């Protein structure tokens, strides 16, 4: 009886234990996982903005809102890489909400009801909405669609109404941010003194000789670098050697290469589809339905080439014929059918050199006209249009020799288009063409082409089958199961002939290891679950299985000699410092570059006749801002700089001559240039400053 009594007394406890066990069994993953609220609220925090914790749930809700907008805009679900971008957009949206809302309120900024109505149904429909409501036939914004949609909202389901309310809020928030950025952007101003300095930097020219003694001219054995030297160097330069939290990994990659059987099966499948493509009357619908190409039905505009894989294998492809299959360089089989060929609107190709006159007075424009005429005369004399474009051009095309590519007449302003399309031969047009942007020097590089083609692209990816994947997985799983520590990991890899790869300085938000993309789960494992020396289970990537070993762990803080990367960097810098001192000692008292070259045969002597003050590199030498600054500090012909230490070696320069920038009457162009450059950076700089002031902390890597 006493035993029965004890059992009865403990029944409540037993039931409680069983109940708790069942709860842990059912939801233990959530309770004990990274999102657990029982084990501390910090485990449910994805970041901190302006001193306020951002919960996992709030962040996920923002992700879903952003994802829904993506689906509404594109009509499809995002890919994995797009989902990563959506997560970043959601995080940025939370930052903007927390940081900028207070700024808007303090400044009294708002979007009125009238302004919002104008944005979504008035004369100034915003871009986001215009892009969502386009006529599929014309590709243009369709106001009738918008009217129909707005009229249907009153009777729409609650989810649709809630989505529209969310869209309107997003439009208003976006307009507030534009107002805020514009308010600061238009406050940018450049003084005449700043513009004069900009002009002088761009137009002060030196003719200079120089000698470059690279560090490899001095053998490493001639300079001694001890560990104590390195420790002291790191300590003295700690601001440059601060480290963030990172991990070091070693891993074996088991690639998912398709087998010969996989290739034969894919080839058989595409050959069957090719037979159907030859007979079908609706080529576009067929390839959209059956092809795995990103753009299965393409229009080749005049001047544009046919797909390279087609032209490499077929000399004169005929309409209606199917060519292929060919093996592409992206591991796929592809076939092509030219479904139509006709004469379309003409396109031409040209290059230009633009000398801008935007915002200038008539007097200043006249000076630019004369400068442009001088450039045109130089081009006609030398024939070096591309060189002149790189030197004088004032738009982005200058970096590619002024090339504008192929274009239709309507792609450019009337004056420019008329000049190009009236040309009957290729070559430089022997007159200046003035437009609202400035003066153009134009070179016609290709005459009119009108041939337009439509091409159906039938492509099937050559991928590993399930049978092949299973075979590869078994090998990876066997390796992981038998590699429990660094020693067995290394020995088993050597035994099986597997290549062990190393990834160092892996950050908490990394999504790849070296050039291996899609490795986010491996990185999360390294930061959340792994300890040094632990071997992972098998990770599945799109094109491989991976087994990883956590080799090292670095916490955020001061750099130290124990960090291999920091030690290597500090050693190199310290060794170069000592080599620079050695070089300077050896060339002290030598009067000529030839004498210096006798001491250091690896040195190179060169000359630059047109070095500009705003340059940062010496042609034939490399990045050398200190040397260039010293060169323009010289005054007399024949004067030499002291030996100057740069990252690339030691440089000594001799001035032949220096031509100061000429004084000009109007510096408006340079003021506009400074102001525009600053304005273009405003939005980014504001965001960076606000994040820093708000003390944004990002822990998302623990969850995603």
Features:
704 residues; alpha+beta; Chitinase A, domain 3; seven-stranded antiparallel β-sheet; four-stranded antiparallel β-sheet; 22 helices; globular
Short summary:
This protein is an alpha+beta fold and 704 residues long. It is built from 22 helices and 20 strands. Among the domains are: 205-242 and 565-659, no CATH class; 246-257 and 465-554, Chitinase A, domain 3, CATH 3.10.50; 259-463, Chitinase A, domain 3, CATH 3.10.50.40.
Task: Look at the helices and sheets and give the structural class.
Answer: alpha+beta
Q: What is the number of helices? A: 22
Low-confidence stretches: 1-42
CATH architectural label of the domain at 259-463: Roll
Give the overall shape, derived from the CA principal axes.
Answer: globular
Give the tally of β-strands.
20
Query: What portion of the residues fall into strands of 2 or more residues?
Result: 15-25%
Distance between the termini: 58 Å
The CATH class of the domain at 259-463 is identified as Alpha Beta
Largest sheet: 7 strands, antiparallel
Summed over residues and divided by their number, the pLDDT gives a mean of: 87
């Amino acid at each position: 009886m006493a035993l029965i009594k004890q059992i009865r007394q403990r029944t409540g406890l037993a039931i409680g234990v069983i109940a708790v066990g069942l709860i842990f069994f059912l939801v233990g993953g959530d309770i004990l996982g990274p999102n657990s609220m029982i084990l501390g609220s910090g485990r449910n925090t994805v970041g901190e903005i302006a001193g306020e914790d951002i919960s996992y749930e709030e962040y996920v809700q923002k992700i879903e809102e952003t994802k829904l907008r993506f689906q509404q805009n594109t009509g499809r679900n995002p890919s994995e890489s797009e989902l990563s971008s959506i997560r970043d957009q959601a995080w940025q949206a939370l930052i903007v909400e927390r940081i900028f809302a207070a700024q808007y309120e303090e400044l009294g900024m708002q979007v009125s009801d009238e302004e919002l109505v104008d944005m979504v149904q008035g004369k100034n429909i915003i871009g986001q909405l215009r892009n969502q409501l386009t006529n599929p036939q014309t590709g243009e914004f369709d106001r009738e669609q918008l009217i129909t949609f707005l009229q249907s909202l009153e009777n729409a389901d609650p989810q649709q109404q809630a989505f529209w309310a969310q869209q309107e809020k997003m439009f208003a928030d976006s307009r507030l941010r534009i107002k805020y950025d514009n308010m600061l952007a238009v406050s940018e101003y450049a003084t005449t003194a700043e513009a004069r300095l900009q002009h002088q930097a761009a137009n002060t020219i030196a003719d200079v000789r120089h000698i470059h003694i690279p560090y490899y001219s001095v053998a490493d054995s001639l300079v001694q670098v001890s560990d104590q030297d390195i420790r002291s160097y790191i300590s003295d330069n700690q601001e440059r050697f601060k480290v963030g939290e990172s991990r070091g990994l070693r891993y074996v990659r088991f690639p998912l290469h398709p087998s010969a059987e996989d290739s034969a099966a894919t080839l058989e499948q595409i050959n069957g589809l090719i037979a159907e493509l030859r007979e079908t009357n609706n080529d576009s619908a067929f390839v959209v339905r059956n092809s795995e190409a990103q753009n299965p039905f393409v229009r080749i505009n005049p001047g544009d080439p046919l797909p390279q894989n087609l032209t490499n294998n077929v000399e004169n492809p005929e309409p209606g014929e199917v060519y292929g299959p060919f093996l592409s360089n992206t591991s796929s089989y592809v076939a092509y059918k030219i479904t139509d060929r006709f004469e379309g609107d003409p396109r031409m190709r040209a290059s230009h050199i633009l000398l801008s006159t935007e915002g200038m007075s008539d007097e200043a424009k006249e000076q630019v006209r004369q400068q442009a005429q001088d450039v045109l005369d130089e081009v006609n004399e030398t024939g070096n249009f591309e060189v002149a474009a790189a030197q004088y051009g004032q738009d982005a095309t200058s970096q590619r020799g002024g090339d504008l590519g192929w274009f239709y007449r309507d792609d450019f302003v009337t004056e420019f288009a008329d000049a190009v399309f009236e040309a009957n031969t290729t070559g430089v047009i022997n007159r200046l063409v003035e437009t609202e942007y400035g003066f153009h020097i134009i070179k016609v590089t290709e005459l009119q082409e009108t041939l337009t083609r439509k091409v159906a692209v039938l492509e099937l990816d050559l991928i590993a089958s399930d049978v092949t994947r299973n075979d590869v997985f078994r090998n990876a799983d066997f390796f992981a199961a038998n590699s429990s520590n660094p020693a067995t990991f290394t020995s088993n890899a050597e035994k099986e002939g597997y290549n062990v790869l190393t990834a160092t300085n892996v950050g908490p938000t990394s999504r790849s290891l070296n050039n291996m993309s899609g490795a986010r789960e491996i990185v999360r494992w390294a930061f959340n679950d792994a300890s040094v020396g632990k071997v992972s289970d098998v990770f599945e990537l799109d094109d491989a299985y991976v087994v990883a070993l956590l080799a090292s762990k670095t916490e955020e803080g001061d750099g130290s000699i124990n960090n291999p990367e920091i030690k290597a960097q500090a050693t190199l810098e310290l060794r170069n410092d000592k080599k620079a001192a050695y070089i300077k000692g050896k060339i002290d008292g030598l009067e000529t570059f030839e004498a210096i070259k006798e001491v250091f045969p690896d040195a190179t002597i060169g000359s630059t006749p047109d070095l500009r003050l705003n340059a940062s590199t010496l042609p034939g030498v490399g990045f050398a801002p200190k040397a260039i600054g010293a060169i323009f500090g010289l005054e007399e012909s024949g004067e030499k700089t002291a030996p100057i230490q740069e990252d690339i070696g030691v440089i000594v320069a001799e001035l032949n001559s220096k031509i100061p920038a000429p004084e000009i009457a109007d510096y408006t162009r340079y003021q506009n240039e400074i102001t525009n450059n600053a304005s273009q950076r405003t939005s980014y700089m504001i965001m960076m400053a606000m994040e820093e002031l708000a003390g944004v902390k990002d822990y998302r890597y623990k969850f995603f």
